[in-house]
Design goal:
37% of the residues lie in helices and 25% in strands. The chain contains seven helices and eleven strands. It has helices at residues 50-56, 58-71, 114-119, 122-149, 185-197, 206-215, 219-229; strands at residues 7-11, 14-23, 30-34, 37-43, 85-88, 91-98, 104-106, 109-113, 155-159, 166-168, 173-177. A four-stranded mixed β-sheet has the order 1-2-4-3, with helices on one face. It has a four-stranded mixed β-sheet with strand order 5-6-8-7.
């Protein structure tokens, strides 16, 4: 079923649904394809027709869409109950709800304060905890890499992005998807280096990738991991 407001186009004999977004943070037109679908992102000042961009990249779009449609079959069926496992920094952790002073990650568990769950829900409390952990962890790692790379960022914002893991605005604001806290630490580091590199190189040219490679030599493998495993980082059915 088509999403409200979505459009469709014929690419290589296949009907492809897509959305169009205008972004003040985008420096050039791009096509995002992920578990949620196809999105054409255009800078506010760009005079580019989305259909033209899609046709020019038809083979890539169709191939990526097919990959993600296969990944959708692997979407976790989460019930948000004590005893269920959720990833935290790449490791599965068993969810425990118990009387305690604060939420914590201990060994192979995520322990949530029972009184908070009773006032809300496991899903909401866990999301809030993930967001809190993400802000602390991502800020520490971003500060570390910014110093190594000799750049300064203005602010770090957590977003509920549906089509991207991160972005870096021209004014130096890092916008990161809070769900990345579920990924392994080396994947988190790659994402941060990628976005911080945009403070020096705005486009994805050779100079940009050379800069990323200086800090993450196997960046291609990390990027491929995100492509192949993003479905494992889906938090709830609301993400779909």
């Amino acid at each position: 079923m088509a999403k409200p407001g979505s459009r469709s186009i014929d690419l290589l004999g296949k009907t492809v649904e897509y959305d169009v977004q205008r972004s003040t943070e985008a420096s050039e037109p791009r096509i995002d394809v992920d578990i949620h679908g196809v999105t054409v992102v255009l800078p506010n000042s760009a005079d580019v027709h989305p259909a033209t961009l899609l046709k020019e990249n038809a083979a890539w779009v169709v191939d990526k869409r097919q990959q993600y449609e296969a990944h959708r079959e692997q979407v976790p069926d989460r019930t948000f109950a004590a005893g269920e496992q959720f990833p935290y920094l790449g490791e599965p952790r068993t969810l425990v709800v118990e009387p305690c002073r604060k939420h914590t990650v201990q060994d192979d568990t995520i322990r949530l304060r029972q009184s908070a769950v009773e006032q809300s829900s496991v899903e909401q409390v866990l999301e809030n905890f993930y967001r809190s952990c993400a802000r602390d962890y991502l800020t520490d790692r971003a500060d570390d890499y910014a110093e190594q790379m000799g750049v300064d960022y203005e602010a770090l914002e957590l977003r509920n992005q549906r089509t991207r893991w991160g972005s870096c605005s021209t004014n130096g604001t890092l916008s990161l998807n809070w769900r990345i806290i579920m990924a392994p630490p080396d994947i988190v580091d790659y994402l941060l280096v990628h976005e911080l590199a945009h403070l020096t190189e705005q486009h994805h040219g050779e100079e940009f990738w050379n800069l990323v490679a200086a800090y993450v030599p196997d960046y291609r493998a990390k990027d491929q991991w995100l492509t192949e495993n993003s479905v494992k980082l889906i938090f709830s059915e609301d993400d779909l």
